[in-house]
Amino acid sequence: MIDGWKDCENCKDKECYDAKAGLFHEIICWKWEPIRCRCGGALSTTRVHNGRRYRHCYSCHFEFYEEG
Predict the structure, then answer these.
(1) C-alpha span between 55 and 62 (Å, rounded)
(2) Measured between alpha carbons, how far is 40 from 4 in angstroms, rounded to an integer?
(3) How far apart are CA 35 and CA 55, in angstroms?
(4) Which residues, in sequence order, are CB contacts of 29 under 8 Å at separation 6+?
(5) Whole-angstrom Cα distance, residue 61 to residue 44?
(6) Is 21 helix (H, G, I), strand (E, B) or coil?
(7) Tens digit of pLDDT for each residue in 1-54?
(8) Which uninterrupted H or E stretch holds 20?
(9) Which end of the chain, N or C, is more open, meaning fewer C-beta atoms within 10 Å of its C-beta?
């Protein structure tokens, strides 16, 4: 079992076949790399607050809200 943070949703490689198919890896994909903030820190999984979806940066603590 893998850490839920290290799945296709949190990988910067959005061209990966598995990500497009909606498949999540049982083991870490060799191409997996976290989505990075402008500061270089890793972003969290998608979170929801008051109906708005966002990601939190673990380094600078900025929150990036998803549009739409």
Answers:
(1) 9
(2) 21
(3) 10
(4) 8, 11, 16, 18
(5) 10
(6) helix
(7) 345 666 667 777 766 666 555 565 555 566 777 778 899 888 888 899 999 999
(8) helix 17-21
(9) C
Taking CA atoms, 31 is separated from 13, 18, 48, 59, in Å, by: 7, 11, 27, 22
| Residue ranges with strand state E in the chain | 47-49, 52-56, 63-65
- Phi, psi for residue 19 in degrees, rounded to 5: -65, -40
CB 18 within 8 A of CB 11: no
Strands 52-56 and 63-65: antiparallel
Whether pLDDT at 57 is above 60:
yes
Q: Two tokens at 47?
A: 């979170």
Token look-up 């799945």 returns 7
